[in-house]
Amino acid sequence: MNDISGTADDRPPSKSHLKREMHARQALGKKLVDLNNAQLARLDLSEGLLAAIRETQRISGHEARRRQLQYVGKLMRDVDFAALQAAYDDLMGATRESVALMHRCETLRDELLEDDGALGDFIAQHPGIDIQWLRAKVRAARQERSAGRPPRHVRELYRWLYAELKGTAHGESRELLDTDESEEHPDDDAPGDEDLR
Fold first, then answer.
1. Are the CB atoms for 123 and 134 separated by under 8 Å?
2. Does residue 43 contact residue 84 with C-beta atoms inside 8 Å?
3. Which of 104, 150, 165, 189 has its CA 20 to 30 Å from the CA of residue 58?
4. What CATH number did the domain enclosing 69 receive?
């Protein structure tokens, strides 16, 4: 009698399994094409794959883009798929967290500008912050809004909240109060404030 133990592990992958994996690689390649340069830089991509992705992003013609996507899919056969998928998932998770933080900061900023109680609650929940700076910034932002002036103080308050909630140093708030450079050079680590009215 033949010993058939372990034969399932010794068999090569089925055609359907290989086809599913090929489609998964192509799908991930298509998702990579939708990323921006900063996101792509955070992934460990080969020069050839990165060049093919950037070329795909430049192509507008439907058929030419379809062919280029097929080429990206072909290059995806040679990558460590599990590692790249995990890196992509981590990147997207970080992006979702950043978007959630943006929304939280926008909501909190609006609450601080509308309600003294919200300001008191925030101060109570965040010991160690520069209370004098925060009160002055909220007051200036309220005056700015009521006068219909450009939202310089509103933007600075948003960026300070973003930095505070992201866990960066409290000392940044003092710098924001004393400089006008934030108008000319928005804080790249605090996305979203460019949408303020």
1. yes
2. yes
3. 189
4. 1.10.60.30
The token duo for 24 is 């998964």
3-state secondary structure of 162: helix
Instruction: State whether residue 13 is helix, strand or coil.
Output: coil
Q: Report if residue 1 sits inside a domain.
A: no
Per-residue model confidence (pLDDT) at position 63: 93
Tokens of 109: 């900023």
Closest-CA residue to 43 (of 31, 57, 58):
31
Q: Which two tokens stand for residue 140?
A: 């200036």
Structure tokens at 77: 């056969």
The string of DSSP letters for 15-40 reads: HHHHHHHHHHHHHHHHHHHTS-HHHH
From residue 125, give the alpha-carbon distance in Å to each of 112, 119, 188.
13, 10, 26
pLDDT tens digits, one per residue of 126-161: 888 899 999 999 999 999 999 998 989 999 999 899
Both structure tokens of 66:
């379809």
